[in-house]
Every structure is written in C-alpha cells, then in structure tokens.
C-alpha cells in the first residue's frame, strides 16, 4: 500500500450529516479512502488480520477503539 496517496477531497459536514454522526456514531464519507488503498484494506479486513479489538465496532465507546477511520 502506498504510504503517500494522492490527497482526497471530503467536503465539510452539512448540519444533517453532523446530526446523523452524533445519532448513529458513524458516517459514510464517499471518496475519503483513496481508490489505490481499497483492495488492500478489503483484503486485510476479510482475512482477519489482527485481533477484533483492533477494528472499530458499532456501539464501542468513543476513543476505546485503536482504529478510527
């Protein structure tokens, strides 16, 4: 995986997006992950690399998960 990907553009959150983030605890950010990284990230996730506590999980208290995307 290239450590210096091309920058991505993510616009500031709209008020309804911020509210959804507060309510749901997550928000889909289209285009936030460079296309060049997706296959490697998908493969790592699907192969179970690491232990479960290394991946953010729904319902986990904020700040308690080592991986925050």
Question: Helices and strands in order, then pairings?
Answer:
Elements: H1 15-24, H2 35-46
Summarize the structure.
This protein is mainly α and 69 residues long. It has helices spanning 15-24, 35-46. It is built from 2 helices and no strands.
Structure write-up:
The protein has 69 residues and is an all-alpha fold. Helix content is 32%, strand content 0%. It starts with 14 loop residues before the first helix and ends in a 23-residue tail after the last helix. It is flat.
Q: How many extended strands?
A: 0
The total count of helices amounts to 2
Percentage of residues assigned to helices: 25-40%
What are the low-pLDDT stretches, counting only 5+ consecutive residues below 50? 64-69
Described by strand count, sense and barrel closure, the largest sheet is: none
Shape: flat
Q: Provide the succession of SSEs.
A: HH
Distance between the amino and carboxyl termini? 16 Å
| Radius of gyration over all CA atoms, rounded | 14 Å
Q: Which structural category fits the helices and strands?
A: mainly alpha
DSSP strand (E) fraction?
Answer: under 5%
The mean pLDDT is 73
């Amino acid at each position: 995986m290239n450590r210096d990907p091309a920058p991505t553009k993510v616009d500031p959150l709209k008020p309804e997006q911020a509210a959804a983030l507060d309510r749901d605890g997550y928000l889909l950010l289209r285009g936030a992950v460079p296309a060049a990284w997706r296959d490697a990230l998908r493969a790592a996730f699907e192969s179970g690399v690491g232990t479960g506590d290394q991946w953010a999980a729904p319902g986990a208290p904020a700040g308690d998960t080592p991986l925050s995307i």
